[in-house]
Amino acid sequence: MAIPHEVLAYGWIPFTVVVVLILIFSWFYIRYYQDHAQSEVSSTLTAILALSVCLLTVALVPVDIFLVSYMKNDDGSWKEWSDNEALRNDFKQTTAVGYYVLYSMVAFLAFAVMPFMYFYYEEKDEDATTRQRMCGALKYTIGFLIVGIVLLLVGAFAPLKQPSKNVTHWDKKLLYMKDELLHTHHGETSLALVMGFLSFIGMVIMITYTAYGMTSLPFSMLKGFKNSKKEHLEVSQERESVEERARMIRAKYMDGRAMSSHDRRTLARLEGEEKLLVRRERHLQAANLGWLNKCLKCCRPFEVVFGIFFLLFGLLIIVSLFLTRQVLIVNLDKALHSLGYKAGYALSKPQLPNPINIIMVYAQKVFPLDYCLFVAIVLYFLYCTMAGIRAISIRCCWIKLYKIRPRKTMPQALLFLILMLILTMLFLNIMLFTLAPQYVMYGSQHYMVKTYHTVYINGTHGNVTHLTNTTSVTTETKVCSTDVPEDKCLMTRAAVFVNRFFYKVWFFGACYYWGTWLFLGIYVIGLGVSIAKKRKSVVDEELDSSDDDSDEELIST
Question: Which spans are transmembrane here (predicted)?
C-alpha cells in the first residue's frame, strides 16, 4: 500500500512553504547587511544560496519527525498504510537521501564555493582581469579542498569503530541501534566525518558568539539607548571643555616659544578628542531631528516586551540544557545514564524531565504547532548568533577582522559571516538532541503493550471437580523509547545519523558533550557582563573608530 496523499501533503507542503520563506528571508537578510556600493552579484548570490541551504538542513528535521510520528495511531498501533515494513524502508531511504543531498551541498559550499568567492573578491584590482582573479582564488581554495578530501578519505578508509557481528556481544543499551549500526556504508561515514569536523567549528562559534548573544540581545532591548538630547548636551559641554584646554595650551606659546614635547602630545590628544566630539555632536543632533529616533521612542514598550520574551526564552533553553525544578537534566542525564565517552556520551534513553522536550512532544499533536515552535527556536539561535557577532565582531585570536553593520558590510565580511552561520546551524542540529531528545528521536510516537492474564477456576459438575482457565488481554500505550523492539517504533533519520556517528567517532560526541557545559558557563559569564554593561548611545555604530568610513568622514569634513 502506498503512502496516502494526505500524509505527503501534511509533511511536504509545509516544508515547501518553508523553502520559499527561507529564500525570501535569505535575500532580505543579505541585502540588509551588505554594502550595496561594493557588492558583487556573484558574492551576493553565493551568500543567499549558502544561507538558504544551511537553513534547509535544519528545516528538514521537523518533516522527518512528523512523518515517523504520523505512521502511528494514538493507541500505539501502526496505521494501515504504514504496517508494511518495505514501505517504511522506502520512507527511510527517501528521507536519508534528502539529508545526504543537503549535507553534501553544505560540504561543497564550505570547502569550495565559499572560500573561492572570498578569495575571488580579495583578488579584486583595477588591473586584474576576471581570469587572473579566478586563478588567484583557485590557488588559495585548493588548500580547503585538500582538507575536505582528506576528511572524506579518512571517513572511507580509516579503521573507525565497527559493531560486532555477534549480537550477543553487544551492550544491552545499544540493541535499539542494532540494525542501524549494521546497515551502514563508507559514503555515509565519510560525509558524517566532514559534517562532524564542520560542526565542531560551529560549536566553537556557538560557544563564543551565541552564548553571549543570548544575554546581550535581551538586555540591550531592556536597557535601550541613552537619551539623545541629554547626551547631546553632555557632549557639547565636554567639547567646550576640551576646546578651552587646547586654547589655554596654545595661549602659553603666543610669544613664539617652542612648544614642549609634553604640551605637544597633550595638544595632539585634545585635538583628536575634539574631532571625535564634533562628529558625535553632529550625529546626535541629526538623531534628535531624525524620524527614526522618534519611531524608536514610540516602539520602546514593544522593545521591552520582546526583551523580556527573549530573556525568558533563553532561560528556558538554558534550563532545558541544565536545570529544572532543582534537578540537573540532560547534561547530568548524559553523565549518569549515557553510554560513556567511548560512545560519545550518546543518550540512549532520557531519564529526567526536559521542559523543551515536553513542550515539543505535546505541540506535535496540534500540527503544525511543533513546526512553528521549531522554526522559532532556530530563528532565535540565528538571531542570538548575529547579536553576538555584531557585539564582538568577527575575530581571530582576539584580533578584529571584520565588523558587521547593516548596509555597510564588505563582501568578504558577508561571506565570512554566512560561513559562520552555516557552521553554527550544523552544530544546532547536534544541540537539538540535547534540547529535545525524545522529540527529535521519536516525535510523539507510542507503542502498544499487550499483557495476557490467565485465571484458573475450580469448578464442580456433579461429583467431578475440574479446573478451568480464562485468559484476558489488557493493552497499555507507552511512549516510544530505546528499550522497545525496533519494529515497535521508528527512529528519525536525523537521530540515526547522529547516533551512528557518535558510536563510530566517539571523540566528536565527547567534545559536543563537554562543549555544551562550556556553552552554559559562557552564558552565565555573559549574563553578568550584560547586566553590568551600560546603555549604548544611538550613534555608537556610526562612531566606531575602527570603521573604515570614519577616516573618510573626517577627511570630508
Answer: 12-33, 45-71, 97-121, 142-160, 191-212, 304-323, 373-392, 413-436, 505-526
How many residues appear in the chain?
Answer: 557
What cell does 50 get? 549558502
Cell numbers 530505546 correspond to 482
Identify the pLDDT of residue 289.
Answer: 66
Residue linked to cell 525496533: 486
Report the DSSP pairing between strands 464-479 and 446-461.
antiparallel
* pLDDT tens digits for range 467-479: 666 666 677 788 8
State pTM to two decimals.
Answer: 0.81
User: 523: which residues sit within 8 A by CB, 6+ positions away?
Assistant: 211, 212, 214, 215, 314, 318
Taking the CB of residue 52, how many other CB atoms lie within 10 A of it?
20
CB distance 503 to 511 below 8 Å: no
Lowest-confidence pick of 50-64, 122-136, 381-395, 417-431: 122-136
pLDDT band at 522 (very low <50, low <70, confident <90, very high): very high
Q: For residue 351, which of 110, 173, 96, 554 has the smallest C-alpha distance?
A: 173
Label each residue of 56-103 as H, E or C: HHHHHHHHHHHHHHHCECCCCCECHHHCCHHHHHHHHHHHHHHHHHHH
Residue closest to 177 by CA, chosen among 11, 375, 10, 343 = 343
Q: Which three cell numbers stand for residue 61?
A: 528535521
Per residue in 287-333, pLDDT (tens digit) is 666 666 667 677 778 888 999 999 999 999 988 887 443 333 344 44
Residue type, 496: V
